[in-house]
Specification:
The chain is of the alpha/beta class and 395 residues long. It contains twelve helices and eleven strands. Strand 7 and strand 8 form a beta hairpin. Helix 3 crosses helix 5, helix 5 crosses helix 6 and helix 10 packs parallel to helix 11. Bound molecules: zinc ion (ZN).
Amino acid sequence: MAARLVAVEHAPYLAHALFTVNPVAADGLGTLAVDRGWRLYVDPVTFGGWGPQLGGGVLVHEVGHLVRVHAERADALGADYDHDRWNLATDAALNDDLLEAGIALPGGVLTPTGLGLEDGGIEEVYYAQMATRQQCSNGGTADSTSVDGCGSGAGGPVASWELAADDQTAPGLGHADANLTRRRVAQAAREYAASHSRGTLPAGWQRWAEATLAGPQVPWRKVLASAVRRAIAHAAGCGDYTYKRPGRRRIPRVVTPAMQRPLLTVVVVVDTSGSMGQSELDSAIAEIQGVIRAAGLAPQGVLVLACDAEVGDATRVRRANEVRLVGGGGTDMRVGIAAAEAARPRPDVLVVLTDGYTPWPERRGRAHLVIAIIGDPSAARNTPDWATTVVVPAV
Ligand SMILES: [Zn+2]
């Protein structure tokens, strides 16, 4: 309680979130961590050793992971994102703001400067910059820093000590309630920034609050577009030279391969039982079609299949706006995927738009599979690891 009050004193705009997290005692954890249900795991010994001042600072840090949507933003990086690098990027972005607000933290905390990055940056930018550095210098700062992790609530893997999502001894916070809390914090932060009698709002928090009040902060259209683009490039790379026709370049007694524009087929399977809205569906399909056009593929190379929950089969639609969502009920996207695989011409890239509450095929098919999970990011955990998974948060 004392640490909480110190935290509220330091960052009054976070008060609502600080009183929303559900503390759970975690003996032997050695630190503080959060999960996706806004449970705050506290090692009583470590926490007691810090005292209210430092404890309050760490509390602001952990709650910061939750408020700034670090778990869901990690999902948007794709299924194969680097947990450790994301944890370093988010820790640096949070600590930067804490130090700017004059909040004390235990010694040796991670900062952007410590990672050789500029202060005041965005989590995703730090994440990307650290990747470039790792490639260029083969290791360096990021690798030599140990990562303890701040739990699944910060975008890390689900740790062994975390309670089950539906555990009732310490109930977790639902997705909608979490978003409501975030909006209240964003509103409070904006008011705090406007009142000159109080402190100044750190740059990172200011940017986050404005983005939150302006609209969804995860650029899912970009993420989906880049996943489809990569899948197309990959499929194209598998067969862009052919010896079927001789090349135009003549070398005596040598048949040169001809460069041929790849004939790729992209099939989009839509889960009509999904919990996504019609507008999200329309913009997801528009985004995919934009990528396909940009890749120089013929528009007739795109087939949209609606996977109906009740009939349990897949029907072909001529235009994306013919897909009508029915909502409710379970579905089996394996049916839609099998129908897509059976289509002629055979698909090279398969994009599935679904809420994720479906079984998935056990084996990789011929087509490169891109899965867009619309709505609950935790549904992205069941997708096959050989597919590319992106998360489209529901508004
Ligand atoms: Zn952290």
